[in-house]
Amino acid sequence: MHHGIHDMPNKLRVFNYLKFTLAFLCVGVQIAYAQHAEMVKAKLLSSVQGTKGHQDILLGLQLEIPEGAKINAPSPENTAVAPVLEWQGSQNFKEAQISWPPSKHHQIDKIDFYSYEKRVIIPIRYILANASQPTTIHAKFKYILCQEQCIPQELTLTVGLPSDRGEETQFSELLIQAKKNVDHHPIPDEEAASFGLMLLFALLGGFILNFMPCVLPVLSLKFMSITRQEQRLDKDFHYRLGLWATFAGILSSFLIFGVVAMALDSLGAQIGWGLHFQQPAFLVFMVAILTLFTCNLLGFYEIALPAALQTRLSAIFGHHFPHLIEDYLTGVFATLLATPCTAPFLGAALGYAFSRSGFDILLLFSAMGLGFGLPYWLGALLPTRWLKLPKPGPWTIALSRILGGLLAITTGWMLWVLAGAHSLLATLVVTVAIISMVILFYIAQNRPLLRRWVWGPFLIILLSVFLPTTTGKAPVSTLEVQKNLWQPLDVQKIPELVQAGKVVFIDVTADWCLTCKLNKAFVLDEKKVLKALRSPQVVAMRADWTRYDQDIKDFLNQYNRFGVPFNIVFGPKQSQGLILSEILKKKDVLQALKRAQSD
């Protein structure tokens, strides 16, 4: 019996990762992160009262699983999805050997699943580093709870055993019997495999982020980068350098996110995703930069570093360096604009990443960056003939103008977000400054000396962050109140409403979340869904997270969620809550409301 992972060929391990991922896709299980500490009750039992006279101790992890629910179990056929037991923080600890009990076998669409249900005791041989010293056992159990959907969770248990006692406890017979009932060849802990699975989720989630509605604003930046490479194909600047530079901008941005998350985690601060869109300083900065990009694509001026700086950089790094800076910044801004929303797989990976610490967080964010930047680094590896576009000509100018229009729309969207996150006064000041910049750029095409005056309104945009901010929580809109549909989120009322037989549908949204807006337009405002939400048995609550709100943050943290959109349904049959996918479907919402109702 050995603690760790059996010597298994890498190909088989990768196959298991892919097999489990395929299982989720085929069965249609929506993976979300939540934390219901009360759902699975756990105790760490010891067969002895202390370490005296014992080099190793028989422990038992006792789990009480809710009726109708199950947690994942290891098996010879699918070891990549075994639960994880970690012992970081334990004192006087050498190693632990886990004996996994027999599990139930399920087969769905010819895919094998193994699970534990109801009550189970997992025997553990806990080996001490020094038998004469006391020990503090700190165990973190990570597993997947499946009920209406599969939810990764974790439990933390701590037990202290003194060194002056060694008598048996009341649990001794129970644990010995549990050990006898276990197969003599237990399956080992699969922490590395589970971490590898989450790395795969992070990679997939980052790639899927390229197709999420929240990425629509960055399409202009992506096309601008591609057309810029095409214009250089016939020159000595190779397009691969530009694509690698853009990918470097994306990857470094995700690494910075990871470093910030590591720093906040080390300080014990709460972490979130897309929270930079709640910061007026970030919004006014992005509005200013987007205005420059828009004017550039509309042909009012060419983006270029100061001539003296270009000369100096070229002398140090080569004459291609200024072009690489442009491509690198394109990747940075694309990442900043693409991260207000979560995506399938990404939500699970983010929740797992924020539950980890240290270098693990950095690895998971790196995987997200690799996934989001995949179109760029894949393009850099493809031969030139596969990426060849028509030679630059009138079509590139027309495309540039279209992209400039799209960026102008994006800038308008950022102004709308600024109004909700900052104030209407700041938005009006910024709007006037933007119009002034556009006019000055346009006139400066014939009068270049006027271009220096552009930096005046640009500075006004940046300084608008210091204007008074509208205080208070973002209210539910007057129109929604008039419809007698949506109420502000009131967490305290939920248990009372459920006990009264009501179904509570909660929508956590934000102005900066385009996925939230599309969910609202195409699902929540759809006639059948509206009819269901207006039912006397249903109470609809909405929380607006456009501006930072600690109450909303605390509510999301209860379910180990760190971003929006977030939708959950409570009811007599779903007292713990049924979490819906980030991308809502009419059928899923209606089914969730029905499942939560009492007979």
Q: How would you characterize this protein structure?
A:
This protein is of the alpha+beta class and 599 residues long. Helices cover 46% and strands 17% of the residues. The strands form three sheets. Strands 3, 4, 6, 7, 9 and 10 form a six-stranded antiparallel beta sheet that branches. Strands 11-13-12-14-15 form a five-stranded mixed beta sheet, with helices on both faces. A four-stranded antiparallel beta sheet has the order 1-2-8-5. Helix 4 (219-231) packs antiparallel against helix 8 (321-338) and helix 6 packs antiparallel against helix 15 (455-463). The longest helix has 28 residues, at 239-266. The two termini are 50 Å apart.
Unreliable parts: 1-38, 185-193, 233-237, 476-482
| DSSP helix fraction | 40-55%
Number of domains: 3
Structural class: alpha+beta
Bin the strand percentage: 15-25%
What is the 3D form? globular
Quaternary status: single chain
For the largest beta-sheet, the strand count, sense and barrel status come to: 6 strands, antiparallel
- In total, the number of strands is 15
Mean pLDDT rating: 76
The rounded distance between the terminal residues' Cα atoms is 50 Å
Number of helices: 21
Task: Please give the radius of gyration in angstroms.
Answer: 28 Å
